Amino acid sequence: MKTWLITGCSSGFGQRLALAAAERGDQVVATARSVKTIEDMAEPFDGRMITVPLDVTDAAAAKAAVAKAVETFGGFDVLVNNAGYGLHGAIEEGTSDEYRPMFEVNLFGLIEATRAALPVMRRSGGAIVNMSSVAGISGGGGGGYYNAAKFAVEGISEALASELKPFGIRVLIVEPGPFRTDFLGRSITVAANEMPEYAGTSRRHYRETNNGNQAGDPDKAIAVILRAVDDDDAPLHLPLGPVAHAAAERKLAAFRSDIDAWHDITIATDFDPPGTRVASSDRTSTSTGQRP
Ligand SMILES: NC(=O)c1ccc[n+]([C@@H]2O[C@H](COP(=O)([O-])OP(=O)(O)OC[C@H]3O[C@@H](n4cnc5c(N)ncnc54)[C@H](OP(=O)(O)O)[C@@H]3O)[C@@H](O)[C@H]2O)c1
Fold first, then answer.
1. Which CATH superfamily includes the segment(s) 3-284?
2. CB 239 less than 6 A from any atom of ligand 1
3. Region annotation Disordered: residue ranges (predicted)?
4. Is 225 touching ligand 1 by the criterion CB < 6 Å?
């Protein structure tokens, strides 16, 4: 039996994962910034699920949620950093009032929850599941701020994977393509400052045309996450669905092409080995042999 602490359980992946874990017999600390929205979730599970308030932008609340998990279940071995939302609009359209709060949730919230959890998890081992996105695989017009936040999630997750291996803690980076949760409904904000110059790239109307039509089935995503948490050999990166896989393939091919195209130019930047260097005094000496 595993014990989970999951952020953002009021809807979508977080809620489905909390329910699926409890339904198979695990213990779950389900959290939401408004705990009222999840109060009823725990009822069917005979004390195996508790609901705890956690706005991930509040580091003290993350510590309190961890303390509650320890008090109730003696600790936990799976942390799921799921809470997040998107911001669409061109970089020039976005304002700091819009992008900074998005980083506070998607990146700094994940960091605070992780830092709160690690003193407990280093004792038990386990897994940290970080919700990235197809947007964390490759950047594209209209999603730049969200790309930046999810790329940062990828970077810190890769670093954590290496740091936490000695403690028996695995890291899983979940990279979903479009899945039918509330994400494109209420969890996307759009830059208020509309600039006609970016009409072709700002993704301003993406959510209106795509909400409800996403091909991804969140329950199938949850099944993959459960399987990966159970499997010690699961890979670090989990692109979910054909859209994420196609993005990963394009990214790998483009990266390969860039690396190869200027290989000889970009690789030749180390200091010359001792003894092989042409002294700068030789290169700059005058015909009289004296330095200029
Ligand atoms: N669905 C997709 O297509 C998709 C694709 C790629 C990545 N993702 C990622 O998947 C994760 C979950 O999204 P979802 O698809 O399940 O969408 P969702 O149904 O809209 O769920 C988002 C959750 O994040 C919570 N949240 C937002 N700000 C929070 C905060 N400050 N503190 C705590 N919780 C907060 C929301 O809670 P409130 O009810 O309080 O707002 C909600 O429970 C996100 O990280 C998202 O970036 C989703």
1. NAD(P)-binding Rossmann-like Domain (3.40.50.720)
2. no
3. 270-292
4. no
**What pLDDT, on a 0 to 100 scale, did the predictor assign at position 276?**
84
- The whole-chain average pLDDT of the chain stands at 95
CA 270 to chain centre: 34
Would you list the domain boundaries of the chain? Answer: 3-284
What does the pLDDT read at residue 284?
47
Give yes or no for a contact between 176 and 16, defined as CB atoms under 8 angstroms apart: no
The band of 287, judged by pLDDT with boundaries at 50, 70 and 90, is very low
Question: Of the given ranges (101-110, 147-156, 178-187, 275-284), which has the lowest mean pLDDT?
Answer: 275-284
Query: pLDDT digits over 40-87, tens only?
Result: 999 999 999 999 999 999 999 999 999 999 999 999 999 999 999 999
Mutate to test the pocket of ligand 1, among 35, 85, 110, 240 (most ligand atoms within 8 A of CB): 85
Distances in Å between the alpha carbon of 195 and those of 56, 93, 97, 184, 204?
A: 32, 6, 17, 22, 10
How many Å apart are CA 141 and CA 4, to the nearest integer? 36
Residue 178 Cα to ligand 1 midpoint, Å, equals 13
> Does 10 qualify as catalytic in the annotation?
yes
Among 99, 145, 150, 202, the one annotated catalytic: 150
99 within ligand 1 shell (Cβ under 6 A):
no
